[in-house]
Amino acid sequence: MKTFSKRALLRASAAPAILGASLIATAAFAQDAPQGAEAEATDTIVVTGSLIKNPNLERSTPVTATSADQIELKQNNTAEDILREIPGIVPSIGSAVNNGNGGASFVDLRGLGSNRNIVLLDGDRLVPAELNGRFDLNNIPVALIERVETLTGGASTTYGADAISGVVNFITKSDFSGLEGTISNQLTEQGDGNYFRADVTMGANFDDGKGNAVFSIGYQQSDPVYQGDRSFSVFNVDSYSGAIGGSGTATPSRFTGTNPSGTAGGNGTRQVTADGSAFRPTTAFDAFNFNPYNVFQTPFERFNMFGAARYEISDAVEAYTRGIFSKNTVKTIIAPSGIFGAAVDIPLSNPYMTAAQRNAFCQRNIATPAEIATGVYTPLYTQAECDAAAVATDPNDPNYREVTTAMSRRATELGPRISEFTTTFFDYKLGFRGGITDTISWDVSGAYGESEQTQTQKGYWLTSRVRQALQATSTTDCLDTSNGCVPLNAFGPDGSITPEMNAFLNANSQVVTKTSLAQANATISGDFGWAVPFASDAVAFAIGGEYRKYAASQESDLLSQSGDLGGAGGAAPNISGGYDVYEAFGELIVPLVQDKPFFQDLTLETGIRYSSYSVDAPSSPSYKTTTWKAGGSWTPVEGFKIRGNYAHAVRAPNIAELFAPVSTALTNLGTDPCSGNAPLLDANLAAVCIAQGAPASTIGAITNDPAGQVNYTGGGNLDLKPEKSNSWTIGAVFQPSGLRGFSATVDYFNIKIKDAITSPTPGDAVSACFDNITASSATDPACTSIRRNPLTGELFGESLTTPGLSLVTSNLGKLSTDGVDFTLNYQTDIGFAKLALSLLGTWTNSNKFQATSASYNRECVGFYSVNCASIQPEWQFSQRSTLSFEKFDISLLWRYIDSVKYEPKQLADDLAAAEVAGCSNPTTTDEDGCMVDPEFRKIKAEHYFDLTGRFHVSDEITITLTAQNLFDNKPKVVGNTIGSTSYNSGNVYPSTYDALGRRYAIAAKFRF
Length: 1008
Fold this sequence. Notes:
Layout lengths: L5 H6 L5 H5 L41 E5 H7 L4 H6 L4 E2 L17 E2 L7 E5 L2 E2 L19 E8 L3 H4 L6 E7 L5 E11 L6 E12 L4 E12 L2 E2 L27 E5 L9 E4 L23 E3 L2 E13 L4 E18 L3 E10 L7 H8 L6 H5 L9 H8 L11 E9 L6 E19 L4 E19 L4 H8 L28 H7 L3 E19 L12 E17 L1 H5 L12 E22 L2 E17 L6 E16 L2 E12 L3 H5 L3 E6 L9 H4 L1 H9 L17 E6 L8 E12 L7 E17 L3 H9 L10 H4 L20 E2 L3 E20 L4 E17 L7 E2 L3 E2 L10 E10 L3 E10 L2 E3 L1 H14 L20 E2 L2 E11 L4 E8 L34 E9 L1
Parallel strand pairs: 4-7, 28-31, 35-38
Antiparallel strand pairs: 1-6, 2-3, 4-5, 6-7, 8-9, 8-42, 9-10, 10-15, 11-14, 12-13, 12-18, 15-16, 16-19, 17-18, 19-20, 20-21, 21-22, 22-23, 23-24, 24-25, 25-26, 26-29, 27-28, 29-30, 30-32, 32-33, 33-34, 33-36, 36-37, 37-40, 38-39, 40-41, 41-42
């Protein structure tokens, strides 16, 4: 990005028309309609992808643009909504993500990760929202956006580290004069999901045009849309069996190590009967349907302010400033808390335990697996011991007995878990600029920003207090009476837990995340005043230096640190770290040949940036990087241009990747190779499962988590180094003079990243161990690094005792992607109206990820699974058709998403596991439900249509009406256990496919 003074621009000719064609052309709808208080001729021009001032010079990098007019027609309320319509951008964490949303929205360019691109505001970095260095799109002042430009490929030379996949640059209106206000409301056809937005912007020029100031305030509020309010998501559907499913943490309670029948093979996990009198005779249970509690649209409230000003102090110096502030509150709502397979010790004299339940514990068979196989039965306690323990209420009584069991119980009586994320953000910039000569200028600026997010977690049981409350031999007092302990009735039916019990079991907790970014930048740019012999434009340059200092911390209260919150997904450890970077950079644009036959223009572009990083750690890690770019454009004849660019970029490890301590959290896995009968049929497999921590007694009884979630352990690594990428683009721009109003672009992109900072996927971790089981596998680190629940042998359970899969962060990864972006635009006057047609599309050929050299090189374009988290289709485009009359516009937006299917590699892994387990007919009828239901293995191509009508009521007032998802398309149901919890929710993929249904929006804009 670079600014260029208006006075200098007046000395230059207008920018070549073909430069505009390199962007996405956007129609000037209803051009005859008076626009009232609109932006005047801007004093600065923003050029994304370059530090060179002069916008007249040809650029080699393709940039796509979304105009304010398009945003208004679509009635986008947030920056996330704007970007969601752009092909090539893969859905990331945002408003459609509930379980896994950290209170912020991010952008993911090309599916390479939301931490591999930079979000800019007028070419400036802003303070990130969290420890991964990502900027929260919720902080963008949508009311002031003039256009959004997206650049693909390595841009580290221009913007510094992190811009490996590209940048998204939100460009605001400058020199705004007047008063403008907007009020809008959006509602689904079913009457929920209300979204209200109001903005007011005012600006003025002063001191005879020497200065300008603009100020904008805005408010937004959205209501939740519950999954229980949509027919396709009322019930949780298991992706493998196709049946109604849910969570094994259910109600009534489930306990391991029960044997109601008192037989050799009677051990198992059983659920309390519906009336609370006994245990079910078999291991069958009623899965908990968590869908109705979850939401498709997270509730959101935001207040924001934005101000900018400039003033010519003298003919040689201009001061400028910009400030932005916002306060956002995002709520995620998920199913009730509880105790999720944690080990508990329960007295056999617990007052809520019935005789039948007590006997089932006492009758647990403690014979060895080999003995059990021959029919040997040895009960944990004899009937006499069990009966005596039933009345032994004093732990000092010699007849007092306890049983250890893993308990799962959903806290339905408490209500849903709610995480409220309140973020306060500000970023301020002050700078000075001026001219050194008529063609050379200088610019010096500094900026500082902070973001503070407070996460308040409500509605969580504390596992430690569940354990304490179960340690009771009367209904009035616990054995340990501290903290006001109230004995817990975990053996009754749903509804057996009283408000007094819940009051003791739950407590709120907080996690505070703070980030800061300090920046200083100095640039000298312009041209040398001379041109090469065959060119008319002068050689242009930019040189300068930059300094950035990042700091971030996560401060958790003791409850969050302990991992004691039932269903929180693990502990939230304290983290603190930072780093700073000094940089020097330079760019050069050399017009080589101009205005010659077959050489209307031939321009070379190059740049280099040197960076020195220092990490704030005791060992003082440091590293130096050099990034560079080279490109060119050739216009042989008027209306046709060929352009290409090659860039070497880097991404430095962020604070989370460097400083996060090792901890356990949740990921997704459909099939555990140790589950079911498989280990009984393969002694080597059984040895591996036992080596991973499964008790020998659980072999043959290990289950898959019905919710498709397992634990994993990972963390940061101070030994990480920057990852490196090489990217190149080549394309062409067409704007034939014989077809006025027509333009087209086509650009091939190729990005490869090595030494990538990555962690293995769940499939990678499982394949590394289980793909080739031998007698030595039980001692293979790839296998022993996986740690199981010490009671159940499963990969899920309490995070403190069940580390699960080992997903270690390293520099061993590789990523690559390539494809083609294309645009078509046509505008013409058809007599009774003006017609504007535009198309923006992307064909993605490949997107591969390899975590280590030993890992599978996984292709994810067109596929979905637990490994390919967010869907990236092969073909995707947006096409808009608009008819503009004098006082009225009508516009239709058509969005196309190509068909996708279940990842073939994961399907093959599922089949291999099914065959080992002895599943019946896994390739055909699959009676045992070991394979993903064939109905869920493909999502057909989707077409969405949005219709907008815009009325210019008067010179000052415009009314816009929009129907989104005009034909009320429903998302394809694929079940809830086929992919990542963050993106596969409510049986669908709501970040990719519209789960809200048809919506209506109305907006009114006034201008004075």
